[in-house]
């Protein structure tokens, strides 16, 4: 059997772990700490027409002032779904309806709200860790298949070590991003 048939695609595993980090960065960008930002709504999905849809695909998101975000929903039938998605998003914003326009006043961050946001950030980081571990599991499954196909024990140990090292590196990156974001949130 050719040796290259037994190789494990570390580049693919790394690319997928990098995707988890990228997703985490996007979610962290949604946790703006003082000023209103359209990007804070990026992770919020609306159940529109039977599938999860980003808010910016069902309406126009604007930031008319530093403490206000508005969403002009294009389809009147989706206004209540957009409002519900925002309420359930964990952003801690109370939407106010004005026809097809949803106004999101951004509350002043008090100590309690900062702590809530750090918990949300920790949840986002845990989701990223789980995603990285799932990629690790896929890599270990590839190694097991290669072992049954005739990979030597030494090669199995080498690949397992490489996958574990990659996983550890990305878990550490998630932890550092979380620490940085929690520092930003708690900064007054």
TrEMBL record:
One of its GO terms (biological process) is cytoplasmic translational termination. Pfam families: RRF. Keywords: Cytoplasm, Protein biosynthesis. CDD domains: RRF. Its main location: cytoplasm. It is found in: Cytoplasm. One of its GO terms (molecular function) is ribosomal large subunit binding. GO terms for cellular component: cytosol. Residues 24-186 form the Ribosome recycling factor domain. Belongs to the RRF family. Responsible for the release of ribosomes from messenger RNA at the termination of protein biosynthesis. May increase the efficiency of translation by recycling ribosomes from one round of translation to another. This is Ribosome-recycling factor. It comes from Pseudooceanicola pacificus. The gene is frr.
């Amino acid at each position: 059997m050719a040796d290259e048939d037994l190789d494990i695609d570390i580049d693919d595993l790394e690319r997928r772990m990098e995707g988890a980090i990228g997703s985490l960065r996007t979610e962290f960008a949604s946790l703006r700490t003082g000023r209103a930002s359209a990007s804070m709504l990026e992770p919020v999905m609306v159940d529109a027409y039977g599938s999860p849809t980003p808010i910016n695909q069902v309406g126009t998101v604007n930031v008319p002032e530093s403490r206000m975000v508005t969403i002009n929903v294009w389809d009147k039938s989706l206004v209540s779904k957009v409002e519900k998605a925002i309420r359930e998003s964990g952003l801690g914003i109370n939407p106010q309806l004005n026809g097809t326009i949803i106004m999101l006043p951004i509350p002043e961050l008090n100590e309690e709200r900062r702590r809530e946001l750090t918990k949300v950030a920790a949840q986002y980081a845990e989701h990223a860790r789980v995603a990285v571990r799932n990629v690790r599991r896929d890599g270990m499954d590839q190694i097991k298949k290669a072992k049954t196909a005739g990979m030597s024990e030494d090669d199995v140990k080498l690949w397992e070590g490489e996958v574990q090292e990659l996983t550890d590196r990305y878990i550490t990156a998630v932890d550092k991003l979380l620490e940085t974001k929690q520092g930003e949130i708690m900064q007054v």
